[in-house]
Protein backbone atom coordinates (compact mmCIF):
# COMPACT_ATOMS: atom_id res chain seq x y z
CA UNK A 1 0.00 0.00 0.00
CA UNK A 2 1.24 3.50 -0.84
CA UNK A 3 2.53 5.33 2.27
CA UNK A 4 0.18 8.28 1.64
CA UNK A 5 -2.81 5.92 1.67
CA UNK A 6 -1.51 4.35 4.89
CA UNK A 7 -1.17 7.82 6.43
CA UNK A 8 -4.70 8.84 5.35
CA UNK A 9 -6.13 5.63 6.79
CA UNK A 10 -4.29 6.28 10.04
CA UNK A 11 -5.59 9.87 10.23
CA UNK A 12 -9.26 8.99 9.63
CA UNK A 13 -10.19 10.45 13.04
CA UNK A 14 -8.88 13.82 11.86
CA UNK A 15 -10.79 14.00 8.58
CA UNK A 16 -13.03 16.87 9.76
CA UNK A 17 -9.99 18.95 10.71
CA UNK A 18 -8.24 18.00 7.45
CA UNK A 19 -11.25 19.17 5.40
CA UNK A 20 -11.48 22.38 7.41
CA UNK A 21 -7.77 23.10 6.95
CA UNK A 22 -8.06 22.29 3.23
CA UNK A 23 -11.03 24.65 2.87
CA UNK A 24 -9.11 27.48 4.54
CA UNK A 25 -6.11 26.86 2.27
CA UNK A 26 -8.33 27.03 -0.83
CA UNK A 27 -10.15 30.20 0.31
CA UNK A 28 -6.85 31.86 1.18
CA UNK A 29 -5.54 31.14 -2.31
CA UNK A 30 -8.75 32.41 -3.95
CA UNK A 31 -8.46 35.74 -2.14
CA UNK A 32 -4.70 35.77 -2.81
CA UNK A 33 -5.40 35.56 -6.55
CA UNK A 34 -7.99 38.37 -6.50
CA UNK A 35 -5.58 41.40 -6.41
CA UNK A 36 -4.31 40.83 -10.01
CA UNK A 37 -7.93 40.89 -11.16
CA UNK A 38 -8.47 44.17 -9.27
CA UNK A 39 -5.33 45.61 -10.88
CA UNK A 40 -6.69 44.66 -14.31
CA UNK A 41 -10.01 46.31 -13.48
CA UNK A 42 -8.17 49.43 -12.25
CA UNK A 43 -6.21 49.61 -15.54
CA UNK A 44 -9.50 49.23 -17.36
CA UNK A 45 -10.92 52.22 -15.41
CA UNK A 46 -7.88 54.34 -16.31
CA UNK A 47 -8.10 53.43 -20.02
CA UNK A 48 -11.88 53.34 -20.58
CA UNK A 49 -13.00 55.50 -17.68
CA UNK A 50 -16.83 55.79 -18.02
CA UNK A 51 -16.94 52.70 -20.27
CA UNK A 52 -15.01 50.49 -17.85
CA UNK A 53 -16.19 47.25 -16.28
CA UNK A 54 -17.04 49.09 -13.04
CA UNK A 55 -19.01 51.68 -15.00
CA UNK A 56 -21.16 48.84 -16.34
CA UNK A 57 -22.21 48.22 -12.70
CA UNK A 58 -23.89 51.66 -12.81
CA UNK A 59 -21.08 53.70 -11.23
CA UNK A 60 -19.92 56.31 -13.77
CA UNK A 61 -17.92 58.65 -11.50
CA UNK A 62 -14.19 57.87 -11.71
CA UNK A 63 -13.57 58.60 -8.01
CA UNK A 64 -16.28 56.23 -6.85
CA UNK A 65 -15.06 53.56 -9.25
CA UNK A 66 -11.64 53.65 -7.57
CA UNK A 67 -13.29 53.95 -4.15
CA UNK A 68 -15.23 50.73 -4.80
CA UNK A 69 -12.04 48.99 -5.93
CA UNK A 70 -10.24 50.24 -2.80
CA UNK A 71 -12.98 48.91 -0.52
CA UNK A 72 -12.91 45.55 -2.31
CA UNK A 73 -9.13 45.47 -1.96
CA UNK A 74 -9.34 46.03 1.81
CA UNK A 75 -11.99 43.32 2.22
CA UNK A 76 -10.05 40.83 0.08
CA UNK A 77 -6.75 41.46 1.90
CA UNK A 78 -8.45 41.09 5.29
CA UNK A 79 -10.11 37.82 4.25
CA UNK A 80 -6.85 36.55 2.78
CA UNK A 81 -5.08 37.29 6.07
CA UNK A 82 -7.87 35.69 8.14
CA UNK A 83 -7.80 32.47 6.14
CA UNK A 84 -3.98 32.42 6.13
CA UNK A 85 -4.04 32.56 9.93
CA UNK A 86 -6.76 29.88 9.99
CA UNK A 87 -5.03 27.40 7.67
CA UNK A 88 -1.62 27.91 9.33
CA UNK A 89 -3.09 27.22 12.75
CA UNK A 90 -5.19 24.27 11.58
CA UNK A 91 -2.39 22.55 9.62
CA UNK A 92 0.19 23.06 12.36
CA UNK A 93 -2.12 21.83 15.11
CA UNK A 94 -3.04 18.87 12.91
CA UNK A 95 0.66 18.12 12.43
CA UNK A 96 1.20 18.28 16.19
CA UNK A 97 -1.76 16.01 16.93
CA UNK A 98 -0.83 13.39 14.35
CA UNK A 99 2.86 13.32 15.31
CA UNK A 100 1.88 13.08 18.98
CA UNK A 101 -0.59 10.23 18.41
CA UNK A 102 1.69 8.45 15.95
CA UNK A 103 4.69 8.57 18.29
CA UNK A 104 2.54 7.40 21.21
CA UNK A 105 0.97 4.56 19.20
CA UNK A 106 4.36 3.48 17.86
CA UNK A 107 5.88 3.49 21.34
CA UNK A 108 2.94 1.57 22.84
CA UNK A 109 3.23 -0.98 20.02
CA UNK A 110 6.97 -1.36 20.65
CA UNK A 111 6.23 -2.09 24.31
CA UNK A 112 3.92 -4.92 23.25
CA UNK A 113 6.56 -6.61 21.09
CA UNK A 114 8.46 -9.60 22.38
CA UNK A 115 12.02 -9.28 23.69
CA UNK A 116 13.37 -11.18 20.67
CA UNK A 117 12.35 -8.25 18.45
CA UNK A 118 14.77 -5.93 20.28
CA UNK A 119 17.63 -8.42 20.03
CA UNK A 120 17.58 -8.07 16.24
CA UNK A 121 17.37 -4.25 16.24
CA UNK A 122 19.34 -1.41 17.70
CA UNK A 123 17.98 1.11 20.15
CA UNK A 124 19.33 3.92 17.97
CA UNK A 125 17.43 2.61 14.93
CA UNK A 126 14.16 2.53 16.87
CA UNK A 127 14.88 5.99 18.26
CA UNK A 128 15.36 7.22 14.70
CA UNK A 129 11.87 6.00 13.79
CA UNK A 130 10.21 7.40 16.92
CA UNK A 131 11.96 10.75 16.66
CA UNK A 132 13.42 11.68 13.27
CA UNK A 133 10.89 9.93 11.03
CA UNK A 134 7.84 11.22 12.88
CA UNK A 135 9.34 14.73 12.98
CA UNK A 136 9.89 14.52 9.22
CA UNK A 137 6.21 13.76 8.74
CA UNK A 138 5.30 16.66 11.03
CA UNK A 139 7.38 19.07 8.93
CA UNK A 140 5.53 18.02 5.78
CA UNK A 141 2.10 18.48 7.37
CA UNK A 142 3.19 21.89 8.69
CA UNK A 143 3.96 23.32 5.25
CA UNK A 144 3.99 20.82 2.38
CA UNK A 145 0.34 19.75 2.47
CA UNK A 146 -0.85 23.36 2.25
CA UNK A 147 1.57 24.06 -0.63
CA UNK A 148 0.20 21.17 -2.67
CA UNK A 149 -3.39 22.27 -2.10
CA UNK A 150 -2.68 25.90 -2.99
CA UNK A 151 -0.72 25.05 -6.13
CA UNK A 152 -3.60 22.85 -7.30
CA UNK A 153 -6.12 25.60 -6.50
CA UNK A 154 -4.01 28.14 -8.37
CA UNK A 155 -3.80 25.94 -11.48
CA UNK A 156 -7.58 25.36 -11.55
CA UNK A 157 -8.63 28.99 -10.96
CA UNK A 158 -6.08 30.64 -13.23
CA UNK A 159 -6.50 28.02 -15.92
CA UNK A 160 -10.24 28.66 -15.92
CA UNK A 161 -9.70 32.45 -15.97
CA UNK A 162 -7.42 32.18 -18.99
CA UNK A 163 -9.90 30.21 -21.04
CA UNK A 164 -12.67 32.67 -20.10
CA UNK A 165 -10.75 35.91 -20.66
CA UNK A 166 -8.44 34.99 -23.56
CA UNK A 167 -9.06 31.57 -25.06
CA UNK A 168 -6.86 32.42 -28.04
CA UNK A 169 -3.69 32.56 -25.91
CA UNK A 170 -4.79 30.33 -23.04
CA UNK A 171 -3.27 27.25 -24.62
CA UNK A 172 0.13 28.96 -24.69
CA UNK A 173 0.02 29.64 -20.96
CA UNK A 174 -1.23 26.12 -20.21
CA UNK A 175 1.27 24.40 -22.48
CA UNK A 176 3.95 23.99 -19.78
CA UNK A 177 1.51 22.43 -17.30
CA UNK A 178 1.57 18.82 -18.60
CA UNK A 179 5.39 18.90 -18.72
CA UNK A 180 5.57 20.29 -15.18
CA UNK A 181 3.16 17.66 -13.83
CA UNK A 182 4.90 14.85 -15.71
CA UNK A 183 8.28 16.09 -14.50
CA UNK A 184 7.04 16.20 -10.90
CA UNK A 185 5.72 12.64 -11.04
CA UNK A 186 8.89 11.43 -12.76
CA UNK A 187 11.08 13.08 -10.13
CA UNK A 188 8.92 11.67 -7.38
CA UNK A 189 9.56 8.14 -8.63
CA UNK A 190 13.29 8.78 -8.91
CA UNK A 191 13.54 10.36 -5.48
CA UNK A 192 11.52 7.75 -3.55
CA UNK A 193 14.24 5.06 -3.32
CA UNK A 194 16.92 7.66 -2.64
CA UNK A 195 15.09 9.08 0.37
CA UNK A 196 14.29 5.60 1.62
CA UNK A 197 18.05 5.02 1.62
CA UNK A 198 18.58 8.33 3.45
CA UNK A 199 16.18 7.27 6.23
CA UNK A 200 17.92 3.89 6.51
CA UNK A 201 21.35 5.50 6.75
CA UNK A 202 20.26 7.96 9.45
CA UNK A 203 18.93 4.98 11.40
CA UNK A 204 22.37 3.34 11.27
CA UNK A 205 24.01 6.63 12.31
CA UNK A 206 21.68 7.07 15.30
CA UNK A 207 22.30 3.48 16.29
CA UNK A 208 26.04 4.07 16.35
CA UNK A 209 25.65 7.26 18.39
CA UNK A 210 23.31 5.65 20.94
CA UNK A 211 25.58 2.64 21.30
CA UNK A 212 28.71 4.75 21.79
CA UNK A 213 27.14 7.12 24.29
CA UNK A 214 25.88 4.15 26.33
CA UNK A 215 29.35 2.59 26.31
CA UNK A 216 31.37 5.76 26.90
CA UNK A 217 33.10 4.32 29.99
CA UNK A 218 34.28 1.27 28.04
CA UNK A 219 35.47 3.51 25.19
CA UNK A 220 37.49 5.65 27.58
CA UNK A 221 38.91 2.75 29.57
CA UNK A 222 40.20 1.08 26.41
CA UNK A 223 41.35 4.42 24.90
CA UNK A 224 39.22 3.68 21.85
CA UNK A 225 38.12 7.26 21.23
CA UNK A 226 39.88 7.56 17.86
CA UNK A 227 38.69 4.12 16.76
CA UNK A 228 35.06 4.99 17.57
CA UNK A 229 35.41 8.41 15.96
CA UNK A 230 36.54 6.69 12.74
CA UNK A 231 33.63 4.25 12.90
CA UNK A 232 31.22 7.14 13.41
CA UNK A 233 32.85 8.94 10.51
CA UNK A 234 32.08 5.96 8.26
CA UNK A 235 28.38 5.98 9.26
CA UNK A 236 28.13 9.77 8.99
CA UNK A 237 29.84 9.75 5.59
CA UNK A 238 27.43 7.08 4.35
CA UNK A 239 24.53 9.29 5.48
CA UNK A 240 26.10 12.34 3.81
CA UNK A 241 26.66 10.49 0.54
CA UNK A 242 23.11 9.14 0.60
CA UNK A 243 21.81 12.69 1.08
CA UNK A 244 24.16 13.95 -1.63
CA UNK A 245 22.69 11.51 -4.16
CA UNK A 246 19.17 12.62 -3.28
CA UNK A 247 20.11 16.32 -3.36
CA UNK A 248 21.84 15.99 -6.75
CA UNK A 249 18.50 14.90 -8.22
CA UNK A 250 16.13 17.14 -6.25
CA UNK A 251 18.23 20.29 -6.82
CA UNK A 252 17.86 19.93 -10.60
CA UNK A 253 14.07 20.04 -10.42
CA UNK A 254 13.55 23.80 -9.99
CA UNK A 255 15.98 24.95 -12.76
CA UNK A 256 14.36 22.56 -15.24
CA UNK A 257 10.86 23.71 -14.28
CA UNK A 258 11.96 27.34 -14.68
CA UNK A 259 13.01 26.68 -18.28
CA UNK A 260 9.61 25.15 -19.04
CA UNK A 261 7.84 28.07 -17.33
CA UNK A 262 9.90 30.52 -19.39
CA UNK A 263 8.34 29.17 -22.58
CA UNK A 264 4.78 29.80 -21.36
CA UNK A 265 5.50 33.24 -19.96
CA UNK A 266 7.35 34.40 -23.09
CA UNK A 267 4.57 33.15 -25.37
CA UNK A 268 1.93 35.07 -23.42
CA UNK A 269 4.07 38.20 -23.22
CA UNK A 270 4.63 38.19 -26.99
CA UNK A 271 1.34 37.01 -28.49
CA UNK A 272 -0.85 38.55 -25.80
CA UNK A 273 0.92 41.89 -26.20
CA UNK A 274 0.42 41.81 -29.98
CA UNK A 275 -3.31 41.05 -29.55
CA UNK A 276 -3.70 43.87 -27.00
CA UNK A 277 -1.88 46.30 -29.32
CA UNK A 278 -4.14 45.27 -32.21
CA UNK A 279 -7.25 45.81 -30.12
CA UNK A 280 -8.22 42.14 -30.02
CA UNK A 281 -7.71 42.09 -26.26
CA UNK A 282 -8.32 44.88 -23.74
CA UNK A 283 -5.34 46.40 -21.95
CA UNK A 284 -6.93 45.48 -18.60
CA UNK A 285 -7.33 41.85 -19.62
CA UNK A 286 -3.75 41.75 -20.85
CA UNK A 287 -2.56 43.20 -17.53
CA UNK A 288 -4.53 40.59 -15.60
CA UNK A 289 -3.14 37.77 -17.73
CA UNK A 290 0.47 38.93 -17.32
CA UNK A 291 0.05 39.02 -13.54
CA UNK A 292 -1.84 35.71 -13.44
CA UNK A 293 0.65 33.79 -15.57
CA UNK A 294 3.32 34.66 -13.01
CA UNK A 295 1.01 33.72 -10.15
CA UNK A 296 0.39 30.39 -11.89
CA UNK A 297 3.81 29.41 -13.16
CA UNK A 298 6.32 30.79 -10.66
CA UNK A 299 4.78 29.06 -7.61
CA UNK A 300 5.24 25.81 -9.51
CA UNK A 301 8.96 26.19 -8.95
CA UNK A 302 8.26 25.50 -5.27
CA UNK A 303 7.02 22.08 -6.26
CA UNK A 304 10.63 20.95 -6.12
CA UNK A 305 10.89 21.78 -2.41
CA UNK A 306 7.38 20.49 -1.78
CA UNK A 307 8.03 17.17 -3.48
CA UNK A 308 11.35 16.98 -1.68
CA UNK A 309 9.49 17.30 1.64
CA UNK A 310 6.82 14.91 0.39
CA UNK A 311 9.30 12.17 -0.51
CA UNK A 312 11.15 12.51 2.78
CA UNK A 313 7.82 12.33 4.62
CA UNK A 314 6.64 9.28 2.66
CA UNK A 315 9.93 7.46 3.30
CA UNK A 316 9.52 8.22 7.00
CA UNK A 317 5.84 7.24 6.94
CA UNK A 318 6.76 3.86 5.48
CA UNK A 319 9.21 3.20 8.33
CA UNK A 320 6.74 4.24 11.03
CA UNK A 321 3.86 2.27 9.51
CA UNK A 322 6.05 -0.81 9.05
CA UNK A 323 6.84 -0.58 12.76
CA UNK A 324 3.14 -0.33 13.61
CA UNK A 325 2.42 -3.30 11.33
CA UNK A 326 4.96 -5.51 13.12
CA UNK A 327 2.89 -8.43 14.46
CA UNK A 328 2.78 -9.02 18.21
CA UNK A 329 4.02 -12.54 18.89
CA UNK A 330 3.07 -12.86 22.56
CA UNK A 331 -0.63 -12.26 23.21
CA UNK A 332 -2.32 -11.89 26.56
CA UNK A 333 -4.70 -14.52 27.86
CA UNK A 334 -8.31 -13.89 28.86
CA UNK A 335 -8.23 -15.25 32.40
CA UNK A 336 -7.78 -12.61 35.15
CA UNK A 337 -5.35 -13.32 37.96
CA UNK A 338 -5.95 -11.30 41.16
CA UNK A 339 -2.61 -10.96 42.94
CA UNK A 340 -4.07 -11.71 46.38
CA UNK A 341 -5.38 -15.08 45.12
CA UNK A 342 -2.01 -16.39 43.84
CA UNK A 343 -0.48 -19.24 45.85
CA UNK A 344 2.67 -19.38 43.69
CA UNK A 345 2.85 -23.04 42.68
CA UNK A 346 4.72 -23.41 39.39
CA UNK A 347 5.02 -26.52 37.22
CA UNK A 348 7.03 -26.90 34.01
CA UNK A 349 6.08 -29.85 31.83
CA UNK A 350 8.31 -30.97 28.95
CA UNK A 351 9.40 -27.39 28.22
CA UNK A 352 11.66 -26.78 25.23
CA UNK A 353 12.95 -23.39 24.07
CA UNK A 354 15.56 -22.15 21.60
CA UNK A 355 16.53 -18.64 20.62
CA UNK A 356 15.98 -17.80 16.98
CA UNK A 357 18.27 -19.86 14.77
CA UNK A 358 20.11 -21.52 17.66
CA UNK A 359 20.22 -24.86 19.40
CA UNK A 360 17.71 -25.42 22.24
CA UNK A 361 18.74 -23.70 25.48
CA UNK A 362 16.11 -25.62 27.45
CA UNK A 363 15.13 -29.09 26.34
CA UNK A 364 12.33 -31.36 27.69
CA UNK A 365 12.49 -29.74 31.13
CA UNK A 366 10.26 -30.95 33.96
CA UNK A 367 10.32 -28.82 37.11
CA UNK A 368 8.06 -28.40 40.15
CA UNK A 369 8.22 -25.32 42.37
CA UNK A 370 6.03 -25.63 45.49
CA UNK A 371 4.03 -22.63 46.71
CA UNK A 372 5.63 -20.60 49.49
CA UNK A 373 9.01 -22.36 49.28
CA UNK A 374 12.45 -21.07 48.36
CA UNK A 375 14.06 -23.03 45.55
CA UNK A 376 17.39 -22.42 43.88
CA UNK A 377 18.45 -23.09 40.31
CA UNK A 378 22.17 -23.42 39.76
CA UNK A 379 24.44 -24.55 36.97
CA UNK A 380 27.30 -23.48 34.77
CA UNK A 381 27.09 -20.52 32.40
CA UNK A 382 24.78 -21.22 29.46
CA UNK A 383 22.83 -23.94 31.24
CA UNK A 384 19.52 -22.08 30.73
CA UNK A 385 18.97 -20.57 34.19
CA UNK A 386 18.26 -16.97 33.15
CA UNK A 387 16.29 -18.13 30.12
CA UNK A 388 13.96 -19.92 32.53
CA UNK A 389 13.20 -16.56 34.21
CA UNK A 390 12.26 -15.01 30.85
CA UNK A 391 9.91 -17.91 30.14
CA UNK A 392 8.20 -17.55 33.53
CA UNK A 393 7.58 -13.85 32.79
CA UNK A 394 6.51 -14.72 29.22
CA UNK A 395 9.14 -12.42 27.79
CA UNK A 396 9.62 -15.36 25.42
CA UNK A 397 7.12 -18.05 24.47
CA UNK A 398 7.89 -21.71 25.06
CA UNK A 399 8.13 -23.65 21.82
CA UNK A 400 7.00 -26.94 23.32
CA UNK A 401 5.50 -28.02 26.62
CA UNK A 402 3.62 -25.93 29.18
CA UNK A 403 4.25 -23.78 32.24
CA UNK A 404 1.45 -23.69 34.80
CA UNK A 405 0.84 -21.29 37.68
CA UNK A 406 -1.49 -22.69 40.34
CA UNK A 407 -2.62 -25.25 37.79
CA UNK A 408 -3.37 -22.72 35.03
CA UNK A 409 -1.25 -22.50 31.88
CA UNK A 410 0.52 -19.13 31.62
CA UNK A 411 -0.81 -18.48 28.11
CA UNK A 412 -4.37 -18.48 29.46
CA UNK A 413 -3.64 -15.77 32.04
CA UNK A 414 -3.91 -12.05 31.57
CA UNK A 415 -0.33 -11.01 30.81
CA UNK A 416 -0.40 -7.87 32.94
CA UNK A 417 -1.80 -9.82 35.90
CA UNK A 418 0.84 -12.53 35.47
CA UNK A 419 3.73 -10.08 35.56
CA UNK A 420 2.14 -8.15 38.42
CA UNK A 421 2.36 -11.20 40.65
CA UNK A 422 6.08 -11.74 39.95
CA UNK A 423 8.85 -9.59 41.38
CA UNK A 424 12.21 -9.73 39.60
CA UNK A 425 15.55 -8.69 41.04
CA UNK A 426 18.07 -9.10 38.25
CA UNK A 427 21.85 -9.07 38.19
CA UNK A 428 21.60 -6.29 35.60
CA UNK A 429 19.73 -3.69 37.64
CA UNK A 430 18.15 -0.92 35.58
CA UNK A 431 17.47 2.35 37.35
CA UNK A 432 15.72 5.20 35.58
CA UNK A 433 16.99 8.77 35.50
CA UNK A 434 15.16 10.21 38.50
CA UNK A 435 15.20 10.22 42.28
CA UNK A 436 15.90 7.29 44.58
CA UNK A 437 12.28 7.41 45.79
CA UNK A 438 10.95 7.32 42.21
CA UNK A 439 13.06 4.27 41.42
CA UNK A 440 11.96 2.38 44.53
CA UNK A 441 8.29 3.12 43.83
CA UNK A 442 8.59 2.20 40.14
CA UNK A 443 5.67 -0.10 39.37
CA UNK A 444 3.99 0.78 42.68
CA UNK A 445 3.14 4.32 41.68
CA UNK A 446 0.52 4.89 44.39
CA UNK A 447 2.93 4.05 47.24
CA UNK A 448 3.32 6.59 50.03
CA UNK A 449 6.67 7.95 51.14
CA UNK A 450 6.34 5.95 54.35
CA UNK A 451 5.91 2.76 52.28
CA UNK A 452 9.03 3.64 50.28
CA UNK A 453 11.12 4.19 53.43
CA UNK A 454 9.81 0.98 55.01
CA UNK A 455 10.77 -1.03 51.91
CA UNK A 456 14.22 0.57 51.84
CA UNK A 457 14.78 -0.39 55.48
CA UNK A 458 13.82 -4.01 54.81
CA UNK A 459 16.27 -4.01 51.86
CA UNK A 460 18.94 -2.48 54.14
CA UNK A 461 19.16 0.50 51.79
CA UNK A 462 17.84 3.23 54.10
CA UNK A 463 21.17 4.00 55.79
CA UNK A 464 23.16 4.61 52.61
CA UNK A 465 20.23 6.54 51.07
CA UNK A 466 20.20 8.95 54.00
CA UNK A 467 23.91 9.60 53.44
CA UNK A 468 23.26 10.74 49.85
CA UNK A 469 23.24 14.53 49.22
CA UNK A 470 19.44 14.84 49.00
CA UNK A 471 18.49 11.53 50.60
CA UNK A 472 15.51 9.96 48.84
CA UNK A 473 15.34 12.93 46.45
CA UNK A 474 18.87 12.34 45.12
CA UNK A 475 19.01 11.97 41.33
CA UNK A 476 20.63 8.62 40.47
CA UNK A 477 21.57 9.47 36.86
CA UNK A 478 20.94 7.36 33.77
CA UNK A 479 20.90 3.67 34.62
CA UNK A 480 21.79 4.67 38.20
CA UNK A 481 25.36 5.52 37.23
CA UNK A 482 25.83 7.78 40.30
CA UNK A 483 25.41 4.77 42.59
CA UNK A 484 27.61 1.75 43.22
CA UNK A 485 26.62 -1.74 42.09
CA UNK A 486 25.64 -2.77 45.60
CA UNK A 487 23.55 0.37 46.11
CA UNK A 488 21.72 -0.20 42.86
CA UNK A 489 21.09 -3.79 43.84
CA UNK A 490 19.59 -2.83 47.19
CA UNK A 491 17.32 -0.25 45.56
CA UNK A 492 16.14 -3.00 43.19
CA UNK A 493 15.39 -5.22 46.20
CA UNK A 494 13.50 -2.36 47.87
CA UNK A 495 11.48 -2.00 44.67
CA UNK A 496 10.56 -5.70 44.81
CA UNK A 497 9.71 -5.44 48.53
CA UNK A 498 7.36 -2.53 47.83
CA UNK A 499 5.67 -4.47 45.03
CA UNK A 500 5.09 -7.33 47.52
CA UNK A 501 4.56 -10.05 44.88
CA UNK A 502 3.54 -13.62 45.76
CA UNK A 503 6.40 -14.88 43.56
CA UNK A 504 9.93 -13.48 43.85
CA UNK A 505 12.68 -14.23 41.33
CA UNK A 506 16.28 -13.43 42.24
CA UNK A 507 18.43 -13.69 39.12
CA UNK A 508 22.06 -13.58 40.29
CA UNK A 509 21.04 -10.82 42.71
CA UNK A 510 24.42 -10.79 44.50
CA UNK A 511 26.75 -11.70 41.65
CA UNK A 512 28.42 -8.30 41.26
CA UNK A 513 28.81 -7.06 44.82
CA UNK A 514 31.48 -7.31 47.52
CA UNK A 515 31.27 -9.65 50.50
CA UNK A 516 30.01 -7.00 52.90
CA UNK A 517 27.27 -5.89 50.53
CA UNK A 518 26.41 -9.51 49.79
CA UNK A 519 25.98 -10.16 53.50
CA UNK A 520 23.65 -7.15 53.81
CA UNK A 521 21.65 -8.26 50.77
CA UNK A 522 21.41 -11.81 52.12
CA UNK A 523 19.99 -10.50 55.42
CA UNK A 524 17.33 -8.53 53.57
CA UNK A 525 16.53 -11.47 51.29
CA UNK A 526 15.99 -13.75 54.27
CA UNK A 527 13.31 -11.34 55.49
CA UNK A 528 11.48 -10.80 52.20
CA UNK A 529 11.42 -14.45 51.08
CA UNK A 530 9.26 -15.50 54.02
CA UNK A 531 5.82 -16.88 53.05
CA UNK A 532 6.27 -16.40 49.32
CA UNK A 533 7.46 -18.54 46.44
CA UNK A 534 11.07 -17.62 45.80
CA UNK A 535 13.20 -18.70 42.85
CA UNK A 536 16.89 -17.90 43.29
CA UNK A 537 19.05 -18.16 40.18
CA UNK A 538 22.58 -18.31 41.48
CA UNK A 539 26.16 -18.78 40.42
CA UNK A 540 27.55 -18.41 43.94
CA UNK A 541 26.37 -21.59 45.64
CA UNK A 542 27.00 -20.13 49.10
CA UNK A 543 24.03 -17.80 48.61
CA UNK A 544 21.51 -20.65 48.12
CA UNK A 545 22.77 -23.35 50.47
CA UNK A 546 19.74 -22.85 52.75
CA UNK A 547 17.14 -23.19 49.99
CA UNK A 548 14.33 -25.71 50.49
CA UNK A 549 15.39 -27.39 47.26
CA UNK A 550 18.25 -26.85 44.81
CA UNK A 551 17.85 -27.75 41.14
CA UNK A 552 20.99 -28.25 39.06
CA UNK A 553 20.72 -27.55 35.33
CA UNK A 554 23.17 -28.56 32.64
CA UNK A 555 22.69 -27.90 28.91
CA UNK A 556 19.05 -26.98 29.42
CA UNK A 557 18.16 -30.12 31.35
CA UNK A 558 17.55 -30.87 35.02
CA UNK A 559 20.31 -33.21 36.16
CA UNK A 560 20.15 -33.06 39.97
CA UNK A 561 17.84 -31.84 42.72
CA UNK A 562 17.77 -31.88 46.53
CA UNK A 563 18.95 -29.92 49.55
CA UNK A 564 22.52 -28.71 49.89
CA UNK A 565 23.72 -31.57 52.09
CA UNK A 566 22.00 -34.22 49.95
CA UNK A 567 23.62 -32.94 46.78
CA UNK A 568 27.06 -32.87 48.39
CA UNK A 569 26.63 -36.51 49.47
CA UNK A 570 25.84 -37.55 45.88
CA UNK A 571 29.26 -36.35 44.66
CA UNK A 572 27.75 -35.17 41.38
CA UNK A 573 27.85 -31.92 39.40
CA UNK A 574 26.71 -29.78 42.35
CA UNK A 575 29.37 -31.23 44.63
CA UNK A 576 31.98 -30.57 41.95
CA UNK A 577 30.89 -26.95 41.61
CA UNK A 578 30.90 -26.56 45.40
CA UNK A 579 34.46 -27.84 45.69
CA UNK A 580 35.66 -25.42 43.02
CA UNK A 581 33.98 -22.41 44.64
CA UNK A 582 34.95 -23.30 48.19
CA UNK A 583 38.58 -23.95 47.23
CA UNK A 584 38.44 -27.66 48.04
CA UNK A 585 40.02 -30.25 45.76
From TrEMBL:
<feature type="transmembrane region" description="Helical">
    <location>
        <begin position="171"/>
        <end position="191"/>
    </location>
</feature>
<dbReference type="InterPro" id="IPR017871">
    <property type="entry name" value="ABC_transporter-like_CS"/>
</dbReference>
<keyword id="KW-0067">ATP-binding</keyword>
<keyword id="KW-0812">Transmembrane</keyword>
<feature type="transmembrane region" description="Helical">
    <location>
        <begin position="62"/>
        <end position="87"/>
    </location>
</feature>
<dbReference type="InterPro" id="IPR003439">
    <property type="entry name" value="ABC_transporter-like_ATP-bd"/>
</dbReference>
<dbReference type="InterPro" id="IPR036640">
    <property type="entry name" value="ABC1_TM_sf"/>
</dbReference>
<dbReference type="InterPro" id="IPR011527">
    <property type="entry name" value="ABC1_TM_dom"/>
</dbReference>
<feature type="domain" description="ABC transmembrane type-1">
    <location>
        <begin position="19"/>
        <end position="312"/>
    </location>
</feature>
<keyword id="KW-0547">Nucleotide-binding</keyword>
<dbReference type="GO" id="GO:0005886">
    <property type="term" value="C:plasma membrane"/>
</dbReference>
<protein>
    <submittedName>
        <fullName>ABC transporter ATP-binding protein</fullName>
    </submittedName>
</protein>
<dbReference type="Pfam" id="PF00664">
    <property type="entry name" value="ABC_membrane"/>
</dbReference>
<keyword id="KW-0472">Membrane</keyword>
<keyword id="KW-0813">Transport</keyword>
<dbReference type="InterPro" id="IPR039421">
    <property type="entry name" value="Type_1_exporter"/>
</dbReference>
<feature type="domain" description="ABC transporter">
    <location>
        <begin position="346"/>
        <end position="580"/>
    </location>
</feature>
<dbReference type="InterPro" id="IPR003593">
    <property type="entry name" value="AAA+_ATPase"/>
</dbReference>
<dbReference type="GO" id="GO:0015421">
    <property type="term" value="F:ABC-type oligopeptide transporter activity"/>
</dbReference>
<dbReference type="GO" id="GO:0016887">
    <property type="term" value="F:ATP hydrolysis activity"/>
</dbReference>
<keyword id="KW-1133">Transmembrane helix</keyword>
<dbReference type="InterPro" id="IPR027417">
    <property type="entry name" value="P-loop_NTPase"/>
</dbReference>
<feature type="transmembrane region" description="Helical">
    <location>
        <begin position="246"/>
        <end position="271"/>
    </location>
</feature>
<dbReference type="Pfam" id="PF00005">
    <property type="entry name" value="ABC_tran"/>
</dbReference>
<feature type="transmembrane region" description="Helical">
    <location>
        <begin position="148"/>
        <end position="165"/>
    </location>
</feature>
<dbReference type="GO" id="GO:0005524">
    <property type="term" value="F:ATP binding"/>
</dbReference>
Amino acid sequence: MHPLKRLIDYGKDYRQQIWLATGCSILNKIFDLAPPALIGIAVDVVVKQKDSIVAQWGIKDIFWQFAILSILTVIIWILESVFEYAYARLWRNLAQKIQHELRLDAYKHIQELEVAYFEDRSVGGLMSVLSDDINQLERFLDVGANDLIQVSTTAIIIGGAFFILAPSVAWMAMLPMPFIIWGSVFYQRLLAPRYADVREKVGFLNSRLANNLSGIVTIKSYTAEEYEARRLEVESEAYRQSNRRAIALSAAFVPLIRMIILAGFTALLLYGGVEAANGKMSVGTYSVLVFLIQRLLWPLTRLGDTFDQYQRAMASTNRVMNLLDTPIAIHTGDMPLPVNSVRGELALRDVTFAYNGRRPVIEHLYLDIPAGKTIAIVGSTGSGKSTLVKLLLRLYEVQAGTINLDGIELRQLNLKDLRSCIGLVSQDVFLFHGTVAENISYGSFDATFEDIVSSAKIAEAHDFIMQLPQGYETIVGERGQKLSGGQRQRIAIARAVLKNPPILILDEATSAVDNETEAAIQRSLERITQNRTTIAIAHRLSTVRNADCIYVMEHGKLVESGRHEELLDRQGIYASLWRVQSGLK
